[in-house]
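Worked problem 6 (solution included).
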Amino acid sequence: MNARVRLEKQQNRSGDPQRADQGFGRIAEEPPPHFAGTDLDGIYAFFARNGYVVIAGCLSSGELAHLNGFYDRTQRERPDAWGLGPRKPHHRHQGLIFSQPLLDYPELDPYTRHPGSYPAVCRLLGGEDRARFSEFNFRETPKNAGIGSQNFHHDATRPDRFTRVPYMPVDWLCAVHYLTDVEPGTPAFCVVPMSNRFETLRDAYESLGDAYREAPLFAPAGTCILYDTATWHCRYDGDGRRPRRTWHQYYARGGWLPSSLPHTDRYVRPPTPCLTDWNLFPERLALHTDPAVRLFFSHWNTAQCEWVASGFSDAVRRSMPRGYM
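Solution. The predicted structure is:
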C-alpha cells in the first residue's frame, strides 16, 4: 500500500461530523517548499499565509549524533523520565516523552536558542526581544508502537486571532526538529495549511474549499518545522518499521504590542499567557547572569514562582507534575 493510500485509509472520508477531527482524507499532492534558515523573508511570508513553515538543514550531523546519543543514554539511565519504567507515563497515547530534560542536563542549553531556527522564531514573534521560552521536550515513536494516528487538534490559542489586524506576530510558536529521517512509512507530523484562524477542523474544511489540504511533512533528519499553535495538526502512524525521534520546543511572545486602531496609542495586545502551569526553568537559566538569557527565560508560571521562592528546593520540584529526579 503506498503512502498516499495508507494515509487516506486512516482518515474520515464520509464527512461524518462526529469524526471530522480525524481528517477529511484530502492529502496534499506536492510537498511544501523547504527554506534555508537564512531566508527570513521567505520563511515569514510562507508562515504568515499558511501557519507553518519547513526549514531545511537546521541541525548538523554532529548535533544529530549528540541528541540521538542523549536519547540512548537517558533511556538507559532514567527510564522513568521517559515513561519506560513501572510508573505510568502522563503521555500514554503519544509514545515516549522526556518532558523536562533541561532541568538536569546543561549540555542541552545551546539548543534552546539554536542558530538554525532561532532567528526565524524571533522574526515570527516580532523580534529577538519578544521571544520567550515555554517548553522543551524530546519525543519518540518507537518501532511497532501501535499507537495509531492522532486526531487533528490545535494547541493553545487566543480568541482574538479571529478578528485582530494584523494577525502577526503569532501568540505561541512550536519548533519540531526531526532527529531521524521522516519518510513515507514513518510517523509524520501533519498540518492543515491556513487552518489557524478556524475554530474547528470542519470550519476549515468548509471555508477553505478546494484549498483545504492535509499535508504530511516528510523530511530528513535535521529539518525544523515551525508552526503556529493555532494551526490544526496531528501525527500519522507509520508502517511500524520506522521509529521517529523529535525535539519539540515551544515559544511564547513577550512584550506589549501597540494598537493597530487609528487615532490611538493604547497598548491593547498583552504578552502571551504562560503555555503550561507545570513547566519549570532551572536556576542556571532563570537567573542567568546574561540579561538576554534571563529575558528569554522570564515567562514564569505559578509553579516556577513557587520553585524560585523555595530556593529551587528539590522537595518542591518533586511535588510538582513531571518534576522527575
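Discussion: The chain has one domain: 3-274.
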